[in-house]
Amino acid sequence: MDIKEVPEIWAEQWQAHHYEAMTEIQQKLYTPIKEGKDIIAVSPTGTGKTVAYTLPAIEKIEVKPHTQWLILAPSHELVMQIAGVVRSWLPAGLKVVGIIGSANIKRQIDNLKKKPQVIVGSPGRVLELIKQKKIKMHEVKMITLDECDQLLIREHIPTVLEIVNSAMRDRQLVMASATKLEDPMMFYRNSEIEPITIEAQAEESNANVNHLYMDVEPRDKAMLLRRISNVEDMRALVFVKDKVRMDIILEKLQYDGVAAAGLHSEVRKEDRKKFLQAFKKGELTYLVVTDVAARGLDIPDLPFVIHCDVAMDAKQYTHRSGRTGRMGKAGTVISFVNEREARTLRQYLKDLNKEAIKVRYYEGVLTDDFEHKATKHK
C-alpha cells in the first residue's frame, strides 16, 4: 500500500508533534511492519526512521501486562532518545522503560516489575537482565535493532545474537540502519524466514544541505574554527578523530574565548548532559565530539556539522553529516582538508551524488571562489 497521507489513527498526534508529510521510509515501513514481516530497513540519518517503525509497532501491542516489544540501540543516549519518542506516541495504558548499563540495576528491576509493554535497551544490560530472568524473552513478539550497523560491530555481535536467539522463533525482527549492512543475513542462516529489504533515499529537500570544504593544514584547524565562529548563526557539532585531538582543539578554542565543550567516552554522565543542554540552548558555539561519543545525539535544527578531522570513509561522512539537515531542513557541512584529503572528500561526495564546494572565510562570511555567499542561515 502506498500511503499518501498519515494514517487516520495517528493524524491528531501527528499534528501535535508538528510533523508535516510522511517521509519515504515512514510510508514504506508502515504496512510491512503491521503485517509482521521481518525487515531490513536502510534510510539516511534524519529521515524519521524511529517514527517509521514505532507507529505500526504500537498498533500491534496489546494492553496486557507483559513485554511485547524490545528495541536495542548501541548507545545510552540513543536508548533514552528512542524511549522518549516511543513514550510520546504510546496510548494510555501502555508503558515503556529504558534500560542502560550505567544506571542503577535495582531501580531498573523495580521498573520491570511494573510490566512495561515496551523495553528500549543497550545490549549488555538487556542480556544481563535476561539471564537474571527479569526480562522474559518468550513473551516478546517484536525485536527492533536500531542503528544496527553499529550494533553488529565485533564487540556487540555475540551479545545481540544471544538476545535475538533467546526469543521465540516466530518473533518479528526489524533492523534499521542509515547505511547498508555488510552481513544482513546473519540472523537468518538457519531459518526458513526470508526478510524483505526496504530502502529509502534522503528527502529531496536535502538539496538544502551545502557540502563545503576549506583548505587548511592540521596545525591551523583550531585557528580556523576560531575565525569561522564569527559566521552568522554558527553553532556546530565538530568531529575529531580521538580524545587527544579534542583536548588540543578545546584548549586553543577556550584560550581564544570561544564557547566550546567536548564529548568523548570518558566524560561523566552529568557533564555530558550539562554540555548538551548548553549547546542546544545556544550557550556554546561548538560541541567537539568523537564519532563514538556522538552516537545517539539528537540536536534539532542543528545548522552546521564540521569535519575538523576528515571522515575515514564515505559511510562515516554520511553518519556525521546527517546530524544537520534532518527531516529536510537546511544545513551546512564543512570539511577541513589539505590537498590530499580534498581529493578523498570529493570522491566521498561523488559516491553520494553530492558536489563539494571549496570556500574561504572573508569578512564574517563563507564564500566560494566567485565570492558568492556559500551559506547564509536566516
UniProtKB/TrEMBL annotation:
PROSITE patterns: HELICASE_ATP_BIND_1, HELICASE_CTER. Keywords: ATP-binding, Helicase, Hydrolase, Nucleotide-binding. One of its GO terms (cellular component) is cytosol. Residues 30-198 form the Helicase ATP-binding domain. GO terms for molecular function: ATP binding; hydrolase activity; RNA helicase activity; RNA strand annealing activity. The keyword Hydrolase applies. One of its GO terms (biological process) is response to cold. InterPro entries: DEAD/DEAH_box_helicase_dom, DEAD/DEAH_RhlB, DEAD_box_RNA_helicases, Helicase_ATP-bd, Helicase_C-like, P-loop_NTPase. Residues 223-367 form the Helicase C-terminal domain. Pfam families: DEAD, Helicase_C. This is DEAD/DEAH box helicase. It comes from Listeria booriae.
